[in-house]
Design brief:
heterodimer, A: 418 residues, Beta-Lactamase, Hypothetical protein af1432, 15 helices, B: 125 residues, alpha/beta, 5-stranded parallel β-sheet
Chain lengths: 418, 125
């Protein structure tokens, strides 16, 4: 093939193109095979073989072999002390001036004409071993492929049909090709390892995210049951905490509040958890139905800060914590702990305040009846504009009327003791 | 003449090893299956056998090994296989295998090992 000039140029261009495109390919194994097949077809050598480093096992294996004297895939390995591997890893054949390739005929000549006799015995021995290894596998030309000075593969070529030696230009072409192949293999490996790392990282992130979510959910569940405990212990509220949640959500709907996405969950959590800090209030204070002393009243007020502290680990609950912090603020600014006024108090907290009071009044009566509901309405109206947001009070009253119509006497089941 | 029998179900491997050892002045016969191998042993009387374990056709390398060693304890049998489990190796050794080489193998080592087996045999004679 090399004798016919036009064909030679064509074949070199084709191969170079193939090699270039390999650099971008994710699976260069197929293209390595394409290369061996191409050389085999165009040059008809006794064999064309590629061996590649298996890094994890410290050995070189044949990935492809073509031609009449081809080497069966999977049969032979080169260990790291194989003469050819040793040669290209350390020696680079400087003495024979054939750096980066080995040609059996040159090696044989060197050994025969005694030029190598001056060498120390170990080196001469290596030359002989290299020649024997090439004889064993019928290798006429061996070209190493390096990546960052590490030997990662070898192109092994048998004799031409006419047994003529390879020319300089042929050898330099094979060298270019082998280098391109090495780049392609390494680029693909790097690419693959990057993808693998990415996948792994994403998996880990997801796992962390899930763990965190689970942790938060667990914490929320604990807080929820704590809140229920506290709520049940409070002499003013016998009902289930879920009733407060239900009334609050309904009132919010009546107000026309946007409850899409997380907003509903935030209000829910606020309605359920607002008094969780009462867990830190001594029973003799908490369970006293009436007549708290000034000192006891101050102790009672600390449940707001305590609640905030308890909920701080719920990092997704910033808004909920704000509700807990402000649920004892009054509409006219007379509440605690900050003395916020009107719109400065989150709407959710204003709802909690009204609903909680309503629920307490209704459930503290022995008989849940129209009468107790009316009493609660009176109480709310009396404090509307001072303690409570008038809009929220109105909305709650409207909502309860609607619910009573809708549910009939079943409405009072809402306030069954837990 | 040094006589070698290569038993492997893969044609490529048989042909490669045949060519390789013939160049080293061995007389080489190949067999592709268990029954073929047993027949070849009777007729060819090899000094050394390279024996694959996994072969189709019911009679695997270990069964072949056992039969050969029962009848011809002097024939050296080198297991050459891709199977690398502890059980297989122990079983082969129990049946009298003279070595156990896993594929991919080092050609230099294989050549040396076969040569050594031949030398042991000629030393015994």
């Amino acid at each position: 093939m090399f004798e016919r000039r036009p064909k030679k140029i064509n074949y070199q261009t084709v191969l170079r193109d193939v090699a270039r495109s390999m650099v971008r390919l994710k699976r260069p194994e197929r293209l390595l095979k394409l290369i061996t097949r191409y050389i085999d077809r165009e040059l008809g050598l006794s064999h064309t073989s590629l061996v590649v480093l298996e890094e994890t096992r410290d050995r070189f294996i044949f990935v492809d072999s073509k031609g009449s004297r081809r080497v069966p895939i999977g049969l032979i390995k080169f260990e790291m002390n194989h003469p050819l591997v040793l040669w290209f890893r350390a020696e680079k054949g400087k003495e024979l001036k054939c750096e980066d390739f080995l040609q059996r005929s040159l090696l044989a000549k060197g050994l025969a004409n005694g030029r190598l006799k001056m060498l120390v015995p170990e080196r001469r021995q290596l030359y002989e071993k290299v020649k024997k290894a090439m004889d064993d596998l019928k290798i006429e030309l061996a070209i190493p492929g390096y990546f960052k000075r590490t030997l990662i593969g070898l192109l092994l070529l048998g004799e031409k049909k006419d047994r003529k030696p390879f020319t300089k230009s042929e050898i330099s072409f094979f060298q270019t090709l082998t280098q391109d192949c090495s780049m392609a293999v390494k680029t693909a490996e790097y690419h693959r390892s990057l993808i693998d790392k990415n996948v792994e990282l994403e998996r880990q992130l997801k796992e962390i995210h899930n763990l965190r979510k689970k942790e938060q959910e667990t914490y929320y569940e604990i807080m929820r049951s704590l809140a229920q405990e506290v709520h049940a212990k409070d002499p003013l509220t016998y009902g289930h905490i879920n009733d407060v949640e239900y009334l609050g959500l309904k009132t919010a709907e009546e107000l026309g509040l946007d409850l899409t996405g997380r907003k509903r969950d935030i209000l829910s959590a606020g309605l359920i958890l607002h008094d969780v800090g009462k867990i830190g209030i001594p029973d003799q204070v908490l369970k006293k139905p009436t007549g708290l002393s000034g000192e006891e009243r101050e102790i009672m007020k600390t449940h707001v800060d305590k609640g905030v502290k308890i909920l701080e680990p719920l990092t997704n609950f910033k808004e909920v914590i704000e509700i807990v912090r402000t649920h004892h603020e009054n509409f006219d600014g007379s509440g605690y702990p900050l003395g916020l006024k009107g719109d400065a108090i989150p709407i959710e907290a204003r709802i909690v305040s009204v609903v909680d009071a309503f629920h307490a009044i209704v459930t503290s009566r022995c008989y849940r009846s129209n009468r107790s509901v009316e009493l609660a309405f009176d109480e709310l109206k009396k404090c509307s504009g001072t303690q409570f947001d008038p809009q929220v009070v109105d909305a709650l009253i409207r909502m309860v009327h609607k619910e009573k119509v809708r549910r009939g006497s079943g409405f009072f089941n809402l306030f069954t003791p837990s | 003449m040094k006589k070698l029998l290569v038993v492997d179900d893969e044609v490529e491997i048989c042909e490669f090893l045949k060519a390789f050892f013939e160049e080293r002045d061995y007389e080489v016969l190949t067999a592709r299956s268990g029954p073929e191998a047993l027949e070849a042993v009777d007729n060819f009387q090899p000094h050394v056998i390279l024996l694959d374990i996994f072969m189709p056709g019911g009679l695997d390398g270990l069964a072949v090994l056992k039969r050969i060693k029962d009848r011809y304890p002097n024939i050296k049998v080198i297991m050459v296989t891709a199977l690398e489990t502890r059980e297989k190796i122990e079983e082969a050794m129990r049946f009298g295998a003279d070595n156990y080489i896993t594929k991919p193998l080092s050609l230099e080592y294989l050549e040396k090992d076969v040569q050594e087996k031949i030398e042991v045999l000629s030393g015994n004679r």
